[in-house]
Structure prediction request, 264 residues.
Amino acid sequence: MATYFGIVHDYEKFVKAFQTLSGLDLNYYKENQMKRRINNFMATHGYKENYTDFLKALDRDSVLYDSFFKHLTINVTQFFRDVKLWDVYREKIIPQLLAGKTSLKIWSAGCSGGQEAHTMAIIMAEYFPNVRYSILGTDIDINVLQQARSGIYEERDFASTPRPLFEKYFTPVDKKFQIKDSVRKNVSFHEQNLLTDRFDRGFDIIACRNVVIYFTDEAKDVLYQKFTDSLNTGGILFTGSTEHLFGKNHLGLKSISSFFYQKQ
Ligand SMILES: C[S@@+](CC[C@H](N)C(=O)[O-])C[C@H]1O[C@@H](n2cnc3c(N)ncnc32)[C@H](O)[C@@H]1O
Prediction:
């Protein structure tokens, strides 16, 4: 059934109407960046600045809606993104965590199509084959989660993947590549809005990378507090390579290497 929006002139009303339609509250995202992304999308699809017609179109056209949602939430990713940080992760972070325990509970928050969560699983399989672990991947976008669950990827997803690992852990399927079941079996994916949903607890590692770029500072503060609460003492928060936690000492997270923070 069509949703009635009335005439929507301004951004604030658009945000309200879009929340009714999608459940996503854009008030948590930086207004200027969001406006720019929305206006770009509307211009490309021939809506100029008429929010009313655009909202009506989103309501009746699921393809347009999916593509807009994807455009807003930006799910660009790849395996072993920022490959040098994954060397630190494997050589320093995991061994340090394993000095005190025998199994790991890991979360890729804002996992997109699962490339980050599966990178973590490949590292466990290749370098820590005797360690028990579980990996959770969560995202707000159900379309990317479908890909994550299928475990099927395209050549371009592997630009940073070491060749031997690519050959060992993926099987060609048509012109794509599927991650092997031996790696997938410890990874699960769930829909979750990081800004409003409850978090599980007891994690040893939380990776939240390239997700918060468009969140407001207030939203980021709440989110980092929730992540800290969800980590075990000694657990690690792994952030994106533009995301520093300067001035966040109250969280009790100590930087132990660039973009890796340990809960004290
Ligand atoms: C650029 S991708 C990052 C993927 C991966 N972490 C990486 O660094 O390559 C950002 C992901 O965050 C998700 N995202 C954006 N807002 C979110 C929210 N409020 N809750 C959960 N996921 C969100 C998007 O759907 C998108 O898949």
In short: The longest helix spans residues 83-98. The pocket of S-adenosylmethionine is lined by residues 73-77, 81, 110-112, 116, 139-141, 144, 192-195, 209-211, 240 (CB under 6 Å).
